[in-house]
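Field: COMPLEX_INPUT
Field: COMPONENT_COUNT = two
Field: RESIDUE_TOTAL = 382
Field: MODE = joint
Values follow.
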Amino acid sequence: MSEPRLPYYPARPELRSRVETAIRQPPRRSTRRTSFLRMTGLAAALALVASAAWISGARRHGAEIELTAVLDGHLRSLEPGHLADVASTDQHTVKPWFAGKLEYSPPVVDLAAAGFPLVGGRVDVVDGRKLAALVYSRRSHIINLFVRPLDATERSSSSEIVRHGYNIAGWTSNGMRLWAVSDLSLGELREFRDLMTARIVESAGTTRSR
Amino acid sequence: MADTRRFEEAMLPHLDAAYNLARYLTRNEHDAEDVVQEAYVRALRYFDAFRGQNAKAWLLAIVRHTTYTRRRRDRLSAITTEFNDEMHSSARDNSGPEAELDRAETLAELQSALGRLPPQFREVLVLRELEGLSYEEIGLIVRAPAGTVMSRLSRARARLAQVLSPFKQETR
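Field: COMPLEX_OUTPUT
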């Protein structure tokens, strides 16, 4: 009686040609990571000789990639079971959950009183780096708030973008870059952003003096 | 890119090994092919760092890494299905004369048993049994000392054997 053997799966010929095509002319945007690496590599090489104007152009490009990535992250989170890895309306449950999962501690504030209850949080990977994603809701709308520390060379900025029917607000506050993505109206998303900023500044300014 | 030819000569011979590993880790053809393509593109990008050591181990390490980063990215939680002792012990209780299964059934059982193992066990089994790599080579790929590879292998085989009795898993 012979032993059952595990089957060996050889690659189909189609895969060989796919791979050959991919490595002979690397696609420009085959994956987000690819284009991000190429972009930063290019920026690093040229920054040595480039003017400040050029650098700001590259930075805008990097922001574009991140923008696409956070919108993707938002859409993915709406798939069943992907919304939150820690589901809690309590900021004191959600914030410690991130400890050890990220190299920074994202601001987690409770905005339930203002009509934006916390739903939970998770860690997303965007362009190869981990990003805190906090989930808030308003009525039946979901807001994903993505937070990461500012890069050393990054300057404060803020923007509002509409894409595929979603509103995206990007801004910086207290050394963090934040992106809020939702199908809420721009007006309500602004309200969320302003409340969030106020609370972040408040909690950073006064550790415990209330 | 001037190095593409050198890259192809070193890496394309290992396409089958790359696909086979990806196929076992992702457990489906479509994801496996995507993983392999992405891994090759990555490997080309990092080819400067390749110092002509063990091309197969170097490539398979990238395939493995690509699978795991994609899993994180896509949250394919399906890949990790924890081993369930209760579920598998019932299979053992069925041993008896009627458990003299025909080959096809056994193979299907083996594949499904393997698919249920955690990926850390699956990868060492595939690399050892199907690629015939040494413990050191497997260690390079999964970034673990050879001793860890050995113990992982024997635990993986024990789990498989447990599922697959009355057929003994041959260990070499």
